[in-house]
Specification:
Shape: flat
Helix content: 25-40%
CATH class of the largest domain: Alpha Beta
Radius of gyration: 27 Å
CATH architecture of the largest domain: 3-Layer(aba) Sandwich
Number of helices: 11
Strand order of the largest sheet: 6-7-8-3-9-10
Distance between the termini: 92 Å
Order of helices and strands: HEEEHEEHEHHHEHEHEEHHH
Strand content: 15-25%
Structural class: alpha/beta
CATH topology of the largest domain: Rossmann fold
Number of strands: 10
Length: 280
């Protein structure tokens, strides 16, 4: 990596436009992504997120504007861009017939890396898949498949990874597993551009969030900066309804001993005894 690549944004997008016949998908998109950060491109279905990722990964040509990835122009230096990135789509691109380890070995061989087996074993350990490495990928859970897919995309140590809606169709536990993986990527210095339609995903992961709406970026900032756009929260009185725990404790007659105004069983017993003496 040159000095310029180390100091410049890992991804720089300026004025990108793209249309498909009469459908204007991107209408002048601008943003920068700092190296080693997680940048979330947040938008609803049809907002243009995947189209933009395809342009940045050189799979599609823009109609107008410029973009650089790792310092390379996506239009004129496509080969250099492809060597600098990895792309993980909405659905895991694993071979279900092969085992997890065999999937990794295959990709390592295709990238002409020395000792593909060692590369595979290292990634299996990194993504907590060692025990499952010998099993067919078709037997993996959704979260395991996605982790394997991301592990495959990291073979060759690309400095930038595009994750296009990586948790689509996953259950809550699998989503959390993927989130942990993405955070680890950034902690290890990988730049992550994440597209998502899930607000909680962007909130959990992103250092910066850009909201893409009808082909343009309408806001771009940190979570705190975006929240500051709204008026301060109002404090209102809300009547608290009893919880099931409250009902249970009331019915069984065992309030929390630590609650103010309650007594322990010993206190209750001694108090009852004292009252009995007074009665007699």
């Amino acid at each position: 990596m040159t000095t310029d690549q180390a100091t410049a944004p890992a991804i720089r997008v300026h004025g990108i436009e793209k249309s498909f016949k009469d459908l204007h998908v991107l209408r002048g998109v601008d943003f920068d992504v700092a190296a080693g950060s997680i940048f979330a491109l947040l938008g609803s279905n049809g907002a243009g997120k995947t189209t933009l990722v395809r342009i940045l990964s050189t799979l599609l040509k823009a109609d107008a504007g410029t973009a650089t990835v790792h310092g390379f122009d996506v239009g004129t230096q496509a080969g250099d861009v492809r060597e600098s990135i990895s792309l993980t789509g909405q659905f895991a691109a694993v071979d279900e017939i092969l085992s997890g380890r065999e999937n990794l070995v295959l990709v390592a061989k295709l990238r002409h890396l020395p000792d593909p087996g060692a590369v595979a074993d290292g990634l299996l350990a990194r993504f907590s898949l060692t025990e499952a490495g010998g099993r067919r990928a078709g037997t993996y859970s959704g979260g395991m498949r996605r982790r394997l897919d991301i592990a495959m995309s990291l073979i060759g140590n690309p400095p930038i990874i595009f994750l296009d809606e990586p948790t689509t169709g996953l259950d809550p536990q699998a989503r959390i597993e993927v989130w942990q993986t993405v955070k680890e990527l950034a902690n290890n210095g990988t730049t992550v551009l994440l597209t998502t339609q899930y607000l909680d995903e962007a909130e959990q992961l992103a250092d910066r969030i850009a909201i893409l709406h009808k082909g343009t970026i309408i806001q771009n900032g940190t979570l705190a900066e975006l929240k500051a756009l709204l008026p301060p929260a109002k404090v209102e009185y809300v009547e608290k309804q009893p919880s099931l725990e409250d009902v249970f404790l009331t019915l069984v007659g065992e309030p929390d001993p630590a609650e103010p105004g309650t007594t322990t069983s010993d206190d209750t017993t001694s108090g009852t005894a004292a009252a009995g003496k007074e009665t007699r």
